[in-house]
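Memo to structure team: turn this sequence into C-alpha cells by end of day. - J.P.
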Amino acid sequence: MTPQKSISGAAWGQLLLLGLIWGGSFLAIKIALREVGPLTSVLHRTFWAMLALWIFVLIARLPVPRDTRTWGAFLVMGVINNVLPFALLAFGTQHLETGLVSIFNASTAVFGVLIAALVFADEKLTARKGIGVSLGFLGVATAMGLEFLGEIDLRSTAQLACIGAAFCYGCGGSWARATLGGLKPQVAAAGMLTGATLVIAPLALLIEGPLTLDLAPATWGAIGYYALVSTAAAFLLYYSILAKAGSGNLMLVTLLVAPVAIVLGAATLGESLEPRHYGGLALVGLGLVVLDGRALRRISV
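Reply from structure team:
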C-alpha cells in the first residue's frame, strides 16, 4: 500500500481555506436563488467560472487539446460533474437548510469510492472501504430521516436530489480518471465547464426564459462568489493541494465543508438543524475517517 503523503503547514492552510470557500458556497447559492431560477444559477456558475479558467490557461500558456475525443469527454464530464449536480443542489437548496444540503454533499467521497471500486480493477472494495461506505450511507439515511424514506413530498424529493448530486460527483471522478488523465488539470476543468455551459445554456433559456443582467447587488455578489471563488479559484486551489498533499489527504476537506455551511446558515439565515442531522453528519464523517484509514492504522500500531 502506498503511504499517504504528510501534510505540510502550507497544505493545511490551503485545506482550511478550501473548506471555508466551499462551505460558503451553499449560502451564496441560497441567496442567488431568491432572484434567479436554479438552471439560470447553474448557467451563471459555469459560464463565469469557464471564462476565468480559460483566462488562466491562456496566461499560463498551457496546451489546449484540439481532438474531438477529448472535447467529447469534456462535454460528458460537464454534464456529469457540473450540470446535473449543480442543478440538483440548486433545487435542493431551494427547499432545504443550507447546512443539511452540505451534509448530503459530504457523501460525495463515499459514492466516489464505491463507484471507483465498480469501475477500476485497482480500486477494489476492501473490508475497510466497505465499512466506511456503509457508515457513510447510514449517515445519509440518518440525516434524511427514516420516516421520510417512504414519503414522496417536496422536502424528501429535495433531499434525494442532493444525494443524487453526490452520486453524480462520484461518477465524475471515475470518468475524469478514465478519460482526462493525460491533461493539465486546469485545462480539464476549463474544458469541463465549457461543455457544461454548452448544455445548460439552452436548457436555462428554454425553461426559465431569457437571461437578465438586471439583478440586485446581493445576487451578483452571491453569483460572483460561487462562480469565481468557489468554482474557478477553488479548482486551482484544489489541484494545488492535490500536488502538495495527495488525494488521500485532500479527502479531509470534505470534513471541513459541512460545519462551515452549518454555522453560516445559522448565523445569517437563522437556520437550525435537528439532532438527527448532526448524527448523520457524524456517521458520514466517521465513514470518511475509515475510508482514509490512517487513524485506524495508528490505533492498531
